[in-house]
Write a structure and sequence with these properties.
This protein is of the alpha/beta class. Helices cover about 35% and strands about 30% of the residues. It is built from eleven helices and 14 strands. Bound molecules: adenosine-5'-triphosphate.
Amino acid sequence: MSLIEVKNITKRFDEKIVLDNISFSIEEGDIFGLIGPNGAGKSTLINIMTGLWKCSGGEVVVGGYDLKKEPLKVKEQIGLVPQEVALMDTVSVYDNLEFFGSLYGLKRKLLKERIDEALEITGLMDKKKEKVKKLSGGMKRRLNIAVAIMHHPRILIMDEPTVGIDPQSRNHIFEFAKKINRENNTTIIYTSHYMEEVDMLCNNLFIIDLGKEIAYGDKKHIKSMVSNNNRVILNIDNYKGEMILDVKSMDGVKECNEEEGLIKLLVEQSTFRLEPLLKIAEKYNGEIKGINFEEPSLEEVFLALTGKKLRD
Ligand SMILES: Nc1ncnc2c1ncn2[C@@H]1O[C@H](COP(=O)(O)OP(=O)(O)OP(=O)(O)O)[C@@H](O)[C@H]1O
């Protein structure tokens, strides 16, 4: 059985269907991306999975517990980093952690240990005496994450954690997510409308738009379903100009352009082979310095599946 099972979830607000029969499962230790444009239904789904909102139909099972029947057993396994920062503005970083930690039932020595650990992992140790209202938006986000991990949840849900924050905090949040997943095997659900973030972090994906499933499964599989095209970028010196003509006539090569000292190919994954390319380079005395392969981006996948750009 998977760690999280979302089965046929539907949500209506009056007559409006906001989630339409959504199903997926998440394995323990995964970094799972929930992606879609603004208004797609991501936060609604998160609110339902964490028991904050009731669904109109369907069920959620976490660690074998049915959310409707045993909500506390489900909630104690989850840490939630909500989209809106939820902190006490007029008290210090440390006091916020102490307060929220005690709500989780942490006391004395263990509470102190967990506060220190949360400050360390979110890079806020030197801000512990600062009042929250003096922190930057990115630091507030990091503190919100610190709050969410104090009870060592098995699952951490991060709802658009990088919206409107500075690049340094964004990187910090990224590295944090990878670290806690790697070192503690924490299962992460990461929602975002920034496809490149999800592309970098996640293994499995659920793409949602207007409350409906657009694609679900292994990231590589989704990409290969949508597009058989990859890019190959060849960094090569001292080759003769005629080489390009030979490369263009290779099986599986759809386009070949020279740009900024690099040769960029658009290739058909199923028919392109690297070996003939290397032979052509050798024939023309080219010195290969590097070869990079690029899959289609998730932006391209979304465009192919919905006919629209993510940020329309
Ligand atoms: N309380 C509510 N009453 C009526 N409609 C709502 C309510 N909450 C959300 N919706 C609608 O549900 C849809 C999905 O909203 P939701 O916030 O889940 O999207 P999202 O994917 O999280 O988008 P964003 O990235 O902008 O937060 C939207 O059309 C929104 O207007």
